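Incident log, support desk, overnight shift.

02:14 A customer reports that sequence design results differ from what the structure should imply. Their input is reproduced verbatim below. On-call engineer (initials T.W.) acknowledged and began investigating.
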């Protein structure tokens, strides 16, 4: 006896795209849903009867308290008489906008000073904990040093010296760095930086994942 298997239903490009959209972006669907509903002068209860989605659920989607599911989005689109893509209009632009973070020098406010002003760390981007990299500008005055650091296992750090001399001690071993030198190491190993020179030292440090 031959068993007949049914091929899995094809998922449209729109559906696959919707499932891949981050939840934070899907919250904008609620704004689109509310705008379309208001433009058609449809009340919540009327939409509920037309699509079968509970009024409380629709309200929570519209106010961004929940994102809803792809199935509920499809029902809502049918109830409003629009294509599913109408609810996702503008998501690509929103995703692109959220994917770029520009920070001007004048807007750099997250600066941490150590050792009575002998060293400082300036965050080179915003919302550090939401990103996969943490770029920092480290400035060390002559004779100054940074606090000893020890990140959790799996954290990595990259250093690039922009100006001056830097002595990087990692796990008890000192590495002498000058302008243009780089150092890549496991940030879970205790480490600190010192300026043994006579001029201000500056270096770019990039940590992944972000560790504060």
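02:41 Re-run completed on a clean worker. Output:
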């Amino acid at each position: 006896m031959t068993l007949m298997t049914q091929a899995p239903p094809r998922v449209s490009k729109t559906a696959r795209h919707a499932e891949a959209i981050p939840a934070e972006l899907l919250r904008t669907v609620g704004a689109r849903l509310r705008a379309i509903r208001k433009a058609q002068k449809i009340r919540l209860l009327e939409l509920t009867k037309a699509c079968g989605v509970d009024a409380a659920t629709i309200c929570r989607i519209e106010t961004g308290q929940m994102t809803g599911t792809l199935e509920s989005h499809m029902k809502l689109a049918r109830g409003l008489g629009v294509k599913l893509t109408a609810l996702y209009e503008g998501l690509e632009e929103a995703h692109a906008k959220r994917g770029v973070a520009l920070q001007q020098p004048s807007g750099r406010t997250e600066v941490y000073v150590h050792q009575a002003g002998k060293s400082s760390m300036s965050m080179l981007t915003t919302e550090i904990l939401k990103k996969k990299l943490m770029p920092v500008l480290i400035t060390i005055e002559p004779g100054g040093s940074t606090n000893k650091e020890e990140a959790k296992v799996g954290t990595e750090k990259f250093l690039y010296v922009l100006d001056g001399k830097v002595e990087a001690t990692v796990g008890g071993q000192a590495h002498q760095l000058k302008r243009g030198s780089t150092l890549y190491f496991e940030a879970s190993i205790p480490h600190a930086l010192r300026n043994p020179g006579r001029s201000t030292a500056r270096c770019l440090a990039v940590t992944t994942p972000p560790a504060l």
